[in-house]
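Sorry to interrupt, but I need a hand with the structure work. Could you write out one complete protein record for me, on any chain you like? Just paste the record in under my message, thanks.

. . .
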Amino acid sequence: MQPFYRNPGPVSSAGACGKLCRGAERIDKGRPSTNAMRADLLAKTVTFRETLRLALETLRSHKLRSFLTLLGVILAVAALVVVMSAVEGLNRYVGEQIANFGANVFVVNQMGIITSLEEFLKAQRRPPITLEDFHWLRENMELAESVAAGDDTQVEVRYGSEVLEEVALVGVTPNFLEVRGWALAHGRFFTESDDLRRAPVCVVGADITDRFFPRLDAIGKTIRLGAQFCEIVGTLKRMGTLLGQSADNLVLIPLGTFRKGWSRPGASLFLLVQAASPELMPAAEDEARLLLRARRHVPYREPDNFGIIAPSSITSLWKRLTGTIFATALGLTSVFMVVGGIVIMNIMLASVTERTREIGIRKALGARRRHIVMQFLVESAVLAATGGLIGLALAFGFGALVQMAVGFPMYTPPGAVVIALLLSTSVGLFFGIYPALRAARLEPVEAMRAET
């Protein structure tokens, strides 16, 4: 074969041309042509496709054995994806709830954030938040835009023959709606006059209007709250659910009215403090803490005898909680994956023994060691990846069932799907290395003599 640059015409110096041509031929022989590279790539592609086909045929011919082999991988992937979906769903949900908590708002109450039984028992011994504490903060805080107060209980609500049980009854100050960030659908909210004269008026949630007044205007109607009658002066816009529980199953009444008819001995109020701006939130929390400690005469070295709940503290607590949950799930997933990988390796070793004769025939027909290694590695990886896909399907089904049954927020991030598939495939590849190498080391003659 002549090099592409050789000139077939006559030359003046045969010796010089001979040296040049021989050098060019050597260069041309050492450099693979484009056609050769394409042929090699095509051969590798065909080999991989054939290997993949053999792996899938092996899985189809041993369905039950393959499923039992994959059980560990299936459970690992399903557990990992379910936990990641639950954590991501709850992260989004908590973020939404914090955003809806009210602009620049934190809560002052008796209990605070409780993370253990010991903290709960200590908080139970704290003095309640009183109306005097509310007035003290409202009159003395300089960094607060507004301070609201409230108390709550549960009552039975009646209208005619219709009854709703376990409805949240919340007594609030007239500025509560503005601080909390809720909106009215119709009517009006309470006035200072309603609160001072303890007027029997109420604002109801969407569940109350849907149940008692589906086709009527609720404004002006009178409902019975336990043994008391109240006139509806306003209705709230629908707020949705809170972890499967309706947030619209409530009735708001003036705090003065609540204290007249539903006050309990030793009951504690909750206070909503709205800082003047987001930047002043930490300073406003410190100011409220100092004012309450001074009013309650708390010694310098003693802890607060009240609780402050801010969005930042809720977020911090939630991150610690989800971190613990995820670490536990990751540990369980690792155990399942290792067990599943060991089972895959044992099954692949048994497969090598069963197919010794087949391996010998393939090697006798020209298959190289790398072809045998590729065959068993692809088979092991496909086996594990199939388990990953089944685990994903189970996780999606379980998540949808939980969300429909109890309204638990589930969201599967795309990264969880990628991680699950990569992890399961990697386990198959890793635990398939030893069986693949063992198959590749078999001598063709000895392998063909083996009895299956």
